[in-house]
Amino acid sequence: MRRISIIISIFLMVSLIACGNEPQSSPENESQPITENELKESTDIISEDTNKTEPEEPEEVEEITEEFSSMEESEETDSVQNYTVSSIDEFAVNDSVYQGDGENSLYYIGEAQIVEYPAEYDGKPVQIIGGGEYIINMYYGEGLPCTETVVKVIIPEGVRVLYNATVFYYNKLEIIELPDSLQEIREKALIGIKNPCNVTVPDNTEIQENAFFDCEGLIVTYKGEAYSKDNDPYGWWGE
Predict the structure, then answer these.
(1) How far apart are CA 120 and CA 127, in angstroms?
(2) Residue 25: predicted pLDDT
(3) Is residue 209 part of a domain?
(4) Domain containing residue 179
(5) Which residue, 152, 154, 100, 88, is CA-closest to 128?
(6) Residue 144 maps to which CATH number?
(7) Is residue 42 part of a domain?
(8) 190, 121, 197, 132: which is closest to 159 by C-alpha?
């Protein structure tokens, strides 16, 4: 209250001086002398009131931005999680392929969108992939159950050979991942890839002639160079 009285007194004095009148004092209304400190405090109060601005709300903007980013990440994650992944019971052993002691040769018979071969099956390491002549004879012209589903094939580390019909007319296939352990891609290992599909073959892998039979959509990167059916100096796509 004292500060308010001081402020009012200052304004009254300034007004009276501006009008050319000397301030009248009376015993009843006489105010106490204003000290230098009180004058400074009053000036500070006026300055604070004048400079007051509405507080900014950066936190709300940050929260909205974070929420939007989370929604985008969630959508990307959902799109990946919506793909079905192969299960162990969707693989079968190819008994027609020679298998060394403790080895397994597998092929896929399920309907998943991502075919991820196991590194081990029935307690033995998987070193050969492909259904061989059995798949070719059994499903030629008809297609496997996964013909219209598979978009990605993942071959694990440890596999040495891609045998006949590792891929057999996967019409939606987009990418094949191969391990550094791969030593051979044999004749007709990949068959009937029509959709644009990319595969990078390790530098130490031998690719046999006609390995990519009827694979018009396949693009192969090998030792830093890209190859396709229209650019096939090694006969990998056959005639």
Answers:
(1) 9
(2) 47
(3) yes
(4) 88-227
(5) 100
(6) 3.80.10.10
(7) no
(8) 121
Convert the pLDDT of each residue in 14-27 to its tens digit: 555 555 544 444 44
φ/ψ region of 94 (left if φ > 0, alpha if ψ in -120 to 50, else beta) reads beta
CA distance readout (Å), 59 to 25, 63, 66: 55, 6, 10
Give the separation between CA 107 and CA 111, rounded to whole angstroms.
Answer: 13
Q: What is the pLDDT of residue 117?
A: 95
Q: Count Cβ atoms within 10 A of the Cβ of residue 2 and give its class: 0-12 exposed, 13-18 middle, 19 or more buried.
A: exposed
- Residue 142's pLDDT is 63
Per residue in 121-156, pLDDT (tens digit) is 988 899 999 887 766 666 665 667 778 899 999 999
Q: Which parts of the chain have pLDDT scores under 50?
A: 21-29, 68, 74-80
Split into its structural domains, the chain has a count of: 1
Q: What tokens were used for 192? A: 């009937």
Tokens matching residue 195: 């959709």
Would 27 be classed as within a structural domain? no
